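Exercise 7 asks you to align residues with tokens for two separate proteins.
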Amino acid sequence: MDSLMQMKTEATVLHAKFSERYDREPCVLRVTRNADVNQPDRHALLSTEKQANSVAFGATLSYQWNLSTSVPMRFTLPDAFGYLDEGDILRISPRSGDVWVMYRVNARTHSVFVTERCNSWCVMCSQPPKPRDSVNLADAWEQAIPFMDPLTPELGFTGGEPTLLGDRFIKLLTLARDCLPKAAIHVLSNGRLFAYLSFAEAVASVKHNDLIVGIPLYSDIGWRHDHVVQAPHSFDQTVRGILNLARVGVAVEIRVVLHRLTLERLLELAQFIARNFPFAAHVALMGYEPIGFGRTNLRSLWVDPVEYHEPLKRAVQWLVQQGIAVSIYNHQRCILPESLWPFAVKSISDWKNIYLPICEGCEARQDCGGFFHSAVDAHSAHIKPLQVHSLLS
């Protein structure tokens, strides 16, 4: 129980409810501590005092209010939002009290979650699709992106399936290109709509100088991939989409989530990738996230990583021999053979990246990928702290 509580409290909270309610439309606001900021109506004043005097802001936030304070659109921040800082971006729904931290200026990674809809139904999906978006996410991001720090180094577009937004997706890419000139753009997509060459050309026409599309491929055999994705003909569409992106000059990363259905032919899949997509900029072999459908299908899909050392080593070795960059995501260093350590990277978004109590004192923690906050339901039985003598032996 102690480890469960620690895991939950270490994950960063991005969604909460304010106790206050107002009859106002939802708004996207940039957090500031500057009472003299330009366009205060587009900002949320983060007050460190017990009383805030300004009434011009879109919202005024405090962790504690003086009972005599009467500021319009004032909200009491939960303690879990103690990390809020200048430049963070919030979406506040005054009628329901819902607040969503869309962007954290000090975060290691930045994600643009553009839709809850998807045209696939993957058996291990960590974000199960919905028939419609609960809020107008595209509108929210069109307001938020211009507020982001122009020095933001990287931005990831994700969902759901981002390409389902069609022209709105292209508009968001263009907005990111214009407002965030330093940001590398990483799009997570199932790749199926890129089977239409015109759509691949539309993405290429944005002419972003650092854009890559990460696309999952789960088998070298069509019906096996389609089974994982739970969508007929998805293998053919995905393969055609990858080829179309390469045709128009958009970089492609290929992703493989490792579980019982994909591990069966992992080496053959690596060979298929090297043979058919030698242009791939990167291959990511990814650990299982036990949430969403990943939780529902946990018993039938999850495999302790210690049990798949050999197929993982063979797949990595094959891709390296073919000159394709490869990384291992979402794995703990202590349960990987040392020969794979150079390929294991810290890839879990920092807001859901946690460590177990047993990890305290581990000499490799700084370089370890850690756990998803949902990993209480599925983590290796072989987790152990690594000490200096074991690292050097």
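Second protein for Exercise 7:
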Amino acid sequence: MQTYYDCTPTGTYDATTAETAARKWAPNGLQLSNLSCPALGGGTICFQLQKPVLTESGCGVWCYQGPYAGTLSVSQSAICSCPTTPLGTKDWD
């Protein structure tokens, strides 16, 4: 588990807070286009960050808008996927 301190009020999510959280996970990661996760109740927008493939593999998805705002999915592969965390459970704040 990795933590960081952010002055943004708890439960406040946007593209900036999603990118900040992602950059703590992979500072030199490659930003992919924002991901829409329609399987998560529709309208969930997420920030994607892929670790540098030449040095390590991994992809993270931080959702910041919609029903799954505050959830994330991190994998050890280069393939990004939407989180499947149930509503009401928040992974990053």
